[in-house]
Structures are given as C-alpha cells and as structure tokens.
Design a protein that fits this description.
There is one protein chain. This protein is mainly beta. The chain has one domain: UDP N-Acetylglucosamine Acyltransferase, domain 1. It has no helices and 18 strands. It has a six-stranded parallel sheet with strand order 2-5-8-11-14-17, with no helix packed on it. The protein is globular.
Length: 118
C-alpha cells in the first residue's frame, strides 16, 4: 500500500518499521525499507533506501540507491544514479555525483564526477 500524508508526493512505499522524522519530503518514486531511519528535514526523490540504512538530518537523496545498513551524513547529497553498497558510511556535508561505492567503505570527500570507489 502506498504511503500518504502531507510530506508524501506521488508513489512512495514505506515499510511499517521505518522511522520518518519531521519536516521530511518523500517522493515521487521512493521506497524505504525495513528498519530504516530517515531523520528530520530529509528530501528523498526517485530512490530506494534498503534495510537498516540511516539518512541523517537535511540530507538529500535523488535518483540513487542506498545500500543495507549504510549511513548518509547530515546535509549530504547523493545525486545522478549513485549506488552505495552495504555498510557504506558517508560523512556530513558531502556531495556524491553518480558514484558507485563498493560495500564496507567510508566516504570522507565529495565525489564530483561519476566513478567507482573500491
């Protein structure tokens, strides 16, 4: 069943065990998996957030895939078909443009051009 509410735009699926903070805007075309935590002020659009992932305050995820148990830092931005593997840790205030990040990595600097992080 699709989610509804003032913070939902278009088609959005949210697992009942996910926690959505205040002042978020989700959609269109968003899926949030079980056990996810979406903190206050987050913007999600055209993306999938997999089981156990955490998106911290005021981050923006657009057109991307956030892997299992990954963490997106505060005020960070994922854009342009980013794919994060399992357990990727992204620091605060970073920008990732089309990056593909393999599992169990830590992102400490912005990725301005599409590339694979091994």
């Amino acid at each position: 069943m699709l989610a509804s509410g003032e913070h939902i735009v278009g088609n959005v699926l949210i697992d009942p065990t996910a926690v959505i903070g205040p002042n978020c805007k989700l959609g269109p075309d968003v899926s949030v998996g079980p056990g996810c935590v979406i903190e206050a002020g987050v913007r999600l659009t055209k993306c999938t957030v997999l089981r156990g992932a955490k998106v911290k305050e005021h981050a923006c995820v657009a057109g991307s895939l956030v892997g299992w148990h990954s963490v997106i830092g505060r005020w960070a931005r994922l854009d342009n078909c980013c794919v994060l593997g399992e357990d990727v840790q992204m620091a605060d205030e970073l920008y990732v443009n089309g990056g593909i990040v393999l599992p169990h990595k830590e992102i400490k600097a912005s990725i301005l051009t599409p590339q694979i992080i091994m």
